Amino acid sequence: MLFSDRETTIIRLLLDNEDGLTRDDLIKNLQVSKRTVYREVASLDNSLARLQIRLVKQDNRYQLVGEAAQMAELKQQVQQQPQQQVFDVRRRQNALTARLLLTNDVVTMQQLADEFNVSVATIVQDLNAIEPIFKDYRLAISRKKAAGIQAVGKESNRRRVLSGVLNSEINEYEFFEYLEHPKAQAQQLEYSTRYFIQLLDQNLLKISFQAIKGLQAAHFNQLADSQLQQLIIVLTVSAMRIQARQSLVELKHVDQTKLFKDQRLAIELFKQFPEAVRTHVNMLELAFMALQIQGMSFAVPKNIMLENYDLVLSYRVRNLIQEVSNQFNWDFRQDDVLFQDLMAHLSAALKRSYSQIPELNNPILQRIQTEYQNLYDIVAHSLTHVFPDNHFVAGEIAYVVIHFASSYEKKVQKTSLSALVLCANGIGTAKILETRLRRNIPEITHFTVSRVLDLNNLDLSQFDLVFSTIFLPGFPMKYKVISPMLLANEIKEIRDDIAQHYSLAAPVTPPEPDSDKLAQKTQDFQTAYQSMRAANDILENITVQDLTNSADLLTTLTQITTSLDGVLLTDPEEVARLLLQRMEKAPVGIPNTPMALVHTTSDLVKRPFFSIYNLSHVLPITGMDGQPVQLKRVLLMVGPAKMSIVENSLMGKISGSIIENDLNLEIYKTGTQAIVYQLISSLFLDELHMLNRNEVASQ
Question: How far is CA 566 from the centre of its chain?
Fold first, then answer.
């Protein structure tokens, strides 16, 4: 528990005077007015309640009342707590923001000035400085004449800003160390981290941590340290507000049908809380928490054949990559990893656009805007053009830039030492840092990128070097704090350190026994053969044919599936119905073309199949951009419900290639069977080479 300086002084006075002190005694010792004493006593009483200690007044004397163990703990805390700790301006303003959002009561300027040990004039300046973040989230600082000030606005927005402030000010390493060992770490925390952590109800914080930790392996294992910390803080803040009877009564822009899975997770989390919280959790609370969870989930299906693949988003992401490539004069279109990363990131970003938590004072995002200013401006403009209905805050744009910057910086070099890279800001930032280390420090052989939360699972003795993007107070090894941008002076310092402390010799790799190599080559051949066979089966069935079709869409689809009956599928009417159902679920028309990518998977389909059908009668459908498309050419893609990894990759390669560039698009739009075959065989060859490289790398 963290007390203000005046509260600490009062506690020490009362502990030294077991018979209690009068109001006049306190006035004399504190050298303040009677009014200030009343205010400080009321504030202290609330603070002590968390330790199950009461401040009572008997016979005009104030006394502390509590169990011996609690009194001993209080005495230890005030003895160890340093006095006259002060914030810098930025942290004080964030502390003031949190202070206002944590209470629904009116507080006076003088009260805040006393609390932060500054003048009333300084508090006025701070209020003016923090007002923009309130306005950004449709909150307001209400100034009541002769009474004080109060934060007003929707409860959901209050929680978002409060959680954002706390998350931005708390060091991830100290946060998780404190949660794992609260008593041992409490007094070792940096003052600012300790202050902001102690704003949270410690019991509810502990429950939140344990609840999320219990589900981490199954549901949150891919989250970065900063995301896990944010989720724990949001859950704790929500529980605190619910316990204070400040439940949500309104939550806009929520599609309940898309939240079912994450609402179930929210239910599991809230089930861990005491009845005082649990019984007041309504559907809006579950939806709010589900939005936070959903906004952090970066996993999306990578194969168009899967039922929940977002074809519209894939079209927009391709357009985004195309626009950035054109304006930045660098071809990003061939980087499949970039496409998949952007699919995952933007899928989550679009979901959290109405639940975004502010990310304040993040030097990494600020440096991204500086180091990649031109790329940042291009990405920001392209996002606005490709996603006109969505608003992207500066921090979100910077995260998208990280993916492009990672692709731009990508270069692989072989090196010699082993390094651990600790990055609390997620895999995108880690990729940039690892890429720059690989390129600029050729002496390093192996990299392990880890979250702070996973440190206990690592054998630190296996690493020659440790790099971190955040400070690690109390970390048991020598480490170097570096920027994700890896500045020139940092590169020089690392090289000098390696030259001074490490003697590099080429590692000796023991030769593999001949029998092992022979067995592995046999396995490699079998794998390559199966992959080639799967590719050939798809290629041999590709056709481009004309179809005299009906004016009805379902009838047309049935005509196509009936032509495949027996050889490729069974029950053509049902497969046609599934194709139509998929088209109704999400648009499949390719914008500015007469084509549509009509696709589905089913147990009724025997093997993967792709072909093109030219229709005699044009059919009106909806395009991926929401605009009408006059369908003249059907790109049909069907497959079994369960396909092998190779089959999934090959079919995904076809779908991804359609709008990858103008030449491909033109081939699918007007190409003959021979030309389409040539394109897809070339795509398959590239994909099989990549799959083979991945197989070798994993051995």
Answer: 47
Residues 589, 629: contact at Cβ < 8 Å?
A: yes
Residue 596 three-state SS? strand
CA 335/CA 408 separation, integer angstroms: 10
Domain extent, residue 20, equals 5-80
Q: Is the dihedral of CA 225, 218, 197, 402 positive or negative?
A: positive
Is 22 in contact with 60 (CB distance < 8 Å)?
yes
Average pLDDT over residues 663-685: 88
| Segment (H or E) for 629 | strand 628-639
Q: Looking at the structure, tell me whether residues 262 and 379 fall in a common domain.
A: no
* Residue 185 host element (H or E): helix 182-185
> Domain check: are 245 and 108 in the same one?
yes
Structure tokens, 649: 């990759």
* Mean pLDDT, range 662-674, rounded to an integer: 87
Are residues 56 and 122 both part of a single domain? Answer: no
Q: Which phi and psi (to 5°) does residue 450 adopt? A: -135, 155
What band does 621 get if pLDDT is binned at 50, 70 and 90? Answer: very high
**Structurally, how many domains does the chain consist of?**
5
Q: Distance (Å, rounded) from C-alpha 62 to C-alpha 50? A: 19
642 contact partners, CB below 8 Å, separation of at least 6:
none
Q: Is 201 helix (H, G, I), strand (E, B) or coil?
A: coil
The half-sphere exposure of 693 on its side-chain side, counting CA atoms within 13 A, is 6
Q: How would DSSP label each residue in 59-86? A: TTEEEEE--HHHHHHHHHHHHHSPSS--
Same-domain pairing of 21 and 123: no
Name the more confident of 294 and 556.
Answer: 556
Burial of 598 from C-beta contacts in 10 A (0-12 / 13-18 / 19+): buried
Give this prediction's pTM: 0.53
Residues 682 and 578 in one domain: yes
Query: Is 508 part of any domain?
Result: no
CA-closest candidate to residue 173, choices 478, 474, 482: 474
Distance CA 70, CA 140 (A): 39
Whether residue 151 is found in the same domain as residue 241: yes
Helices 514-540 & 673-697, crossing angle to 10 degrees?
A: 160
Whether residue 303 lies inside any domain: the answer is no
Sign of CA dihedral 307, 312, 313, 317: positive
d(CA 300, CA 397): 20
- From the list 161, 223, 191, the residue with the least C-alpha distance to 92 is 191
368: CB partners within 8 A, 6+ apart: 376, 398, 401, 402, 405, 485
- Which element (helix H / strand E) includes 116? helix 109-116
* Of 212, 164, 205, nearest in space to 182 by CA: 205
Q: 378 and 405 in contact (C-beta within 8 Å)?
A: no
Tell me the CATH number at 439: 3.40.50.2300
- β pairing state of 417-422 and 465-468: parallel
* Listed residue (245, 246, 239) closest to 278, CA to CA: 239
- Does pLDDT of 635 surpass 90? yes
Residue 547's identity, in one-letter code, is L
pLDDT tens for 145-173 read 878 899 999 998 899 899 988 988 888 88
Please spell the DSSP secondary structure of 377-397, one letter per residue: HHHHHHHHHH-TT----HHHH
Domain boundary among 244, 271, 296: 296
Q: What φ, ψ does residue 467 adopt, rounded to 5°?
A: -115, 145
Residues 477 and 432 in one domain: yes
Same domain, 74 and 94: no
Final residue in a domain of this structure, among 48, 80, 112: 80
CA distances from 393 to 46, 49, 98, 137, 367 (A): 37, 40, 21, 12, 16
